[in-house]
Write a structure and sequence with these properties.
alpha+beta, 6 helices, GNAT family N-acetyltransferase, GNAT_dom, Acyl_CoA_acyltransferase
Length: 221
């Protein structure tokens, strides 16, 4: 499943990044669901089934810093028009290593496939699993190129008490491989929770969603 892209992600999880050479790597989509742009330090990866020449020509025509071209709104709009896909936002991408032992709080796995958070995740990920804690939910599933991704939700009445940090820490105890998170940069509370739980920022990402993808329910990663 999307081995070239997965190789780049696996290397980034180890702290080995594409060369900071100002270039853009264009790769096929790992699957029909997932297309988008990954931006590392001075190197970007565009994964799409569109003609790579179109990608490069469109980037070259932009009047902007070439290091920022793949995340330039004009390029992203052109890519959405070309693919017929939409998007939500550019996310910060973080990764955390698995942790040994038991999670730091009690979790109960959700068996109901119609639970709102689990249902939302299934529109974007495979092999979704979800757990509840007192005041929150943690969800894992396989997203871009089969990487293991995590998202959390904290009830409004228990926020600012450190539960988000405990939930994303718990997810590292549930995983046996690197765990990825996508967080809206403006969601400073969520970013702080992931970073305080040991997740490391590795880049930025915009995913292009198919027209049939769900568009509601996105909270905290």
């Amino acid at each position: 499943m999307g081995r070239p892209l997965r190789d780049i992600l696996d290397a980034a999880a180890r702290g080995v990044f594409p060369p900071a050479d100002g270039r853009t790597t264009v790769l096929p989509q790992p699957c029909d669901r997932d297309a988008g742009v990954l931006s590392f330090t001075a190197h970007s990866v565009v994964f799409t089934d569109e003609d790579p020449r179109w990608v490069r020509d469109t980037l070259a025509a932009l009047d902007c810093d070439r290091l920022a071209a793949t995340m330039n709104p004009r390029f992203l709009a052109a890519l959405m028009d070309r693919t017929g896909r939409g998007c939500e936002t550019v996310d910060a991408v973080l990764v955390g290593s698995p942790l040994p032992g038991e999670p730091p709080l009690a979790l109960k796995e959700i068996e109901d496939p119609h639970h709102p958070r689990a249902a939302y995740a299934r529109a974007r990920r495979d092999d979704v699993r979800a757990w509840t804690a007192d005041g929150g939910v943690v969800v894992t599933g396989r997203g871009v190129a089969g990487r293991l991704e995590v998202s959390v939700e904290v009830d409004e009445d228990v926020r600012e008490r450190g539960l988000g940090r405990l939930l994303v820490t718990a997810a590292r105890h549930l995983a046996d491989e690197p765990l990825w998170a996508q967080v809206t940069p403006g969601n400073a509370r969520s970013l702080r929770a992931f970073q305080s739980a040991g997740y490391r920022p590795v880049g930025a990402e915009l995913l292009l969603r198919r027209p049939d993808a769900a568009t509601t329910g996105r909270v905290g990663g």
